[in-house]
Amino acid sequence: MSSLCLVSVGRVDEEVMSLVARRVQDVFSLAVSRGPGLPEPGHAFDVRRQQYSSVTIMRELVSRRPLETSRLLAVTEKDLFIPMLSFIYGQAQLGGHVAMVSLARLRQEFYQMPANQRLTASRAVKECFHELGHTFGLVHCLNSQCPMALSTNIVQLDQKTAEFCHACSVMLAEAIAHLGKSRDQ
Would the pLDDT of 143 be above 50? Predict the structure, then answer.
């Protein structure tokens, strides 16, 4: 079985991290281990935007991926951006090894609503599935309920399920099988 290293960037809710670890292991057939967390990413903070550069953090994650793991998934509470977008829920290397997800805009509190831990956890799982899917070469899906659908707002994210559509499931299974074969050789 291939493996994934799950890390936090800064302080992250342990309940969400544990759920993500379990669900990723079940759905992606990856042995999940927890790696040492990265410190608060102060170096990635953009004062003008009041957000954190995901590009800066991703560079650090790429250099810290344990070589014995096939994937590194990072979770942070920080609000992320890339220069061309006002925010992102996550980012991944398409066909690569590293992905990351922000919980900041997945929390009801961000929208001045009462906290809902169950909803945050559900959103986190769907977004982690989405970003990990990209690392396995999956692109955005036209099925709005598939985790691989593009979400540019929280309503679109909430419309998704945590189950890949048939087409994405087939492509994901092929990519995971190929990963296992390449490690056996």
Answer: yes
CB 157 within 8 A of CB 89: yes
Decide if 82 contacts 91 (C-beta within 8 A): yes
- What is the per-residue pLDDT for 185? 41
Q: Residue 182 pLDDT more than 70?
A: no
User: Residue 169 — pLDDT band, cuts 50, 70, 90?
Assistant: very high
The more confident residue out of 180 and 129 is: 129
CB 94 within 8 A of CB 137: yes
Q: Please, is 166 exposed, middle or buried when counting C-beta atoms within 10 Å of its C-beta (0-12, 13-18, 19+)? A: exposed
- Spot the catalytic one: 14, 131, 163, 174: 131
Residues 135, 98: contact at Cβ < 8 Å? yes
CATH fold of 3-184 reads Collagenase (Catalytic Domain) (3.40.390)
**131 labelled catalytic:** yes
Dist CA 137 CA 52 (whole Å): 26
Q: Where are the domains of the chain?
A: 3-184
Average pLDDT for the chain: 95
